Amino acid sequence: MGGQSYALLCLLVNIVNFLARTQLEFFSLCAPETLNRHSFPAGFIFGASSAAYQYEGAAEEQGKGPSIWDNFTHQYPCLSLSLSLSQINRKNLDSNLKHLATIDDADRIADGSNGDVAEEFYDMYQDDVKMMKDLGFDAFRFSISWPRILPSGKLSGGINNDGINFYKNLIDELLSNGGKIGITLMSRWMVPYSDSGVDKNAAKRALDFMLGWFLNPLTNGDYPEIMRTLVKERLPNFTEAESAMVKGSFDFLGINYYTADYAADIPSTTKLNVSYETDSYVNLTAERNGVPIGPATALSWLYVYPEGIRDLLVYITKEYNNPLIYVTENGVDDWNNKTLPLEEALKDPMRVDYHRRHLWFLRQAIDCQLNQEQTMHFSSISCIWDTDLLIFGNWVTEGKKLRLKLGLRGGKIPTPSVD
Q: CB neighbours (10 Å) of residue 222?
């Protein structure tokens, strides 16, 4: 079958939504089972990524100040409401937050957990870097805990040199293992709600407000024209010097991709409250005619839409002068089924299928001649958040030991042979 017909067949495959207890079920992938490093260009980089609060631990060590999450999890240590964090979405966010705000001293974290210890990366980063290296990863995207750098939240409150030294040592450790370091932007892909011109324009407009707001100044020295038109005087102006300073001020673009939305036009005659959320005159939704854009996951906002990674990367390539792109986050959450035996949990077929699908569409994007050389998935160790959820990971913790999930243990990223 020709490449175009094969790709079309993949797009036409139907995906069922749930197993029992709303777990995902995926059809077998159109992509070949042998998808591996050989399927990507020479020099393509595979890596992992993390978020400081979910990963570092050491919440009060060596001069670190409290973060917003530290304060929140300590003040509201256990969710006593019927409302689960996983049920909050954009449609009911305002009403949910108002409901939470009316309950004094309510506990808000499902199992009372917090990031005080987390994965102990702060004290064990050398071991973790070695594990990633042993697995075959080429790069690691990490985030910075700013309270570790600025404990009081302000420069005037002083800089914590211990925090500076931690990130310096981490960077040195990564560099000594051949790693690469970068910063990122996050964007969803926007699918027109209908085939009408107004909804196609709405999808483009939504991308301008989510991604172009940051990327257009870096590429062209100013905000997107449509933002100038709709936001008007509320949008700041760049001086000539500022425009020249930010234009072209990046070596590569890091993109985090997880999901997609349908974008429907809101007529300009509609009376809306003036705010960031309404400026674009676009209604974003994960459903069309009652059908989700893709299989649902344990997180209310994350629907699996693997073709979106291809479409987003191709769009960025054409819209923003073909930058060098690193996919710095991509991954899926799963339900924390505490009754599942550990050996079964380690098999992790859903995550294997998810990454295979996204890698397949990433490979298609590369065929479109985009300047893309890296993909990372979030995170390298399982992050547990909310008692109902097990979110994103390649290893799971068993006491003080780390167990590698079978999906990666059985499919370690090999270095291609010379032949």
A: 17
Report the residue count for the chain: 419
Beta strand residue intervals within 4-75, DSSP E: 45-49
Identify the three-state secondary structure at position 121.
helix
Of the pLDDT bands very low, low, confident and very high (cuts 50, 70, 90), residue 261 is: very high
**C-alpha neighbours within 13 Å on the C-beta side of residue 257:** 31
For the chain, which domains are there? 36-62+121-149+159-409 (3.20.20.80)
Nearest Cα neighbor of 339 from 21, 7, 14, 18 is 21
16 and 25 Cβ atoms separated by less than 8 Å: yes
Confidence of residue 199 (pLDDT cuts 50, 70, 90): very high
* pLDDT over 50 at 379, yes or no: no
pLDDT per residue over 52-65, tens digit each?
888 899 989 999 99
How far is residue 254's CA from residue 266's CA, in Å, rounded to a whole number? 31
Q: Are 331 and 392 in contact (CB under 8 A)?
A: yes
> Would you give the distance in Å from CA 300 to the centre of its chain?
14
Choose between 209 and 106: higher pLDDT: 209
